[in-house]
Amino acid sequence: MSQNNTSLQPVWDIPVRLGHWLMVLLFAVCWWSGENHEMTWHRYAGYGLFGLVLFRLYWGVVGTRTARFSNFVSSPKAALTYARNHIFKSNYDENRPNKAGHNPLGAWSVIALLGFILLQIGLGLFAVDVDGFDGGPLSDFVSYDTGRLCAEIHEISFSILMTLIVVHIAAIAYYKLVRKQNLVPAMIHGKANISQSEAIKATPWLRVLIGAAVAALIVWIIAK
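The line above is the sequence of Ni,Fe-hydrogenase I cytochrome b subunit; the predicted structure tokens follow.
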């Protein structure tokens, strides 16, 4: 695919990339530990995932340009227009230059995934097991029945979350196999074939440290 006036430029900062892959890892640990009733692993992986989501929400406000929600979140109508004009083959322009960051459909995928992960974690904080002997760190603040309801919804929302993940992976595969556009490398090394004007600037590391510290503090207070 030919691209005019483009070259490999930085598009994803280190916090976005590292956070993305740590979420993948910790989600896998949460799934494995939940299936095998390894609740200590499940709990600590959940705490880690909680911290990552909190940081991502913070970074979506103060991070580099492509990390900010204001840069990529658009209306549902814009997402449908993008699907009609850029995904369906008859309307796809192979010479159209790449843009940095998420496209309108990818943006809604990010919002849905973050939302359901946060919901999953929130439910887990209040959930209790059938015997009532083990539960999330906030389960003492709710009744047994409420804790059990949280546990049941926790399982249901996990199925929805898994569906969203499958759709996310399928979309990446579609771009790779049909559009000949591999999206994965950019989330590893942080660069994509875009115009220089689309490149992100240096990562503001002081903001990273502040966000990481605040997220860790919140998780520590809840888990204590």
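Note on the example: The mean pLDDT is 91. The radius of gyration is 20 Å.
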